[in-house]
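Please, structure for the following, as tokens.
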Amino acid sequence: MTLSASHPLMDGRTADSPLITAYRGGIPSRRPVWFMRQAGRSLPEYRKLREGTAMLDSCLDPAMASEITLQPVRRHDVDAGIFFSDIVIPLKLAGVDVDIVPGVGPVLGSPVRTAADVAALPTLTEEALEPIREAVRLTVAELGTTPLIGFAGAPFTLAAYMVEGKPSRDHLGPRTMMHADPDTWQALTSWAADASGMFLRAQLEAGASAGQLFDSWAGSLGLADYTRHVAPASARALDHVRDLGAPLVHFGTGTSELLGAMRDVGVDVVGVDYRLPLDEANRRLGGTTPLQGNIDPALLEAPWPVLEAHVREVLAAGAGAPGHVVNLGHGVPPDTDPDVLTRIVELIHSVEP
């Protein structure tokens, strides 16, 4: 199976774009940059559009999700759109009782903590994913030669929310389950892997040119636990999309010690958070893997000369990698001045690849 002949990667629209070129280890026409959480949050046009609409409802309204995805591409001239959705959308579409509570995050009606709880989880169907495909189709039709990045939550992060029932600081529940009840843990992460994998595949088939797996909470794990109890499920999620041939990216926060293992689940690009310089990340990965990152979001409010110097340091540190896509080392903070992001993009594009 591969992508259709009319897919942007196949018909010539995005295959030679700066983003895809860098993801594949080539030399792009300009330095590519996009920002995690660029779609919304800090943009006044996003807040106006979302007024009165709950988060998950906005993700499942194809026209609204598409417009939100496009807003930062228009405003900042970034080199990719990142599909506007949420990692718990596959749970919601499968029929799991989950909501995004403002100021809290994902909250489940009842946590998933026993073998019986896992066995009772509903199955995500292809039909349920149709709003996602429609949103991607609408978006890609507007993006032209700018690629869309599809995304999904990695199984550990999804399972962490499911076990705790809400966001957690130390993820003690899932970390306990993987040792105290490994069979239930494996069943839960397999369910999460299939849900995330189907979600990502729907986006790629409908027109996304690359896919990113977000493991927001993997940094709470040591390398041994990650390799034994988490990596197999992340590989399983990606197994759903490998045959499509689109570049795949893996990103987590606090994962400096896990970079090699995160690459080895089978991805083309590794995202690096703000804690580790890119030249050191490149060294740890053997100099063979394109990197993405890693401007520190804390510097977005610093005086421009301080921020500019930091951005130039990131560009220099990433220059030794086989490819470098500039990003933040985490998401855009909600109170970021959008004009600062636009100025960063202009700076990055002004520096020769």
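Residues 39 and 68 are 6 Å apart (CA to CA). The chain is about 45% helix and 10% strand.
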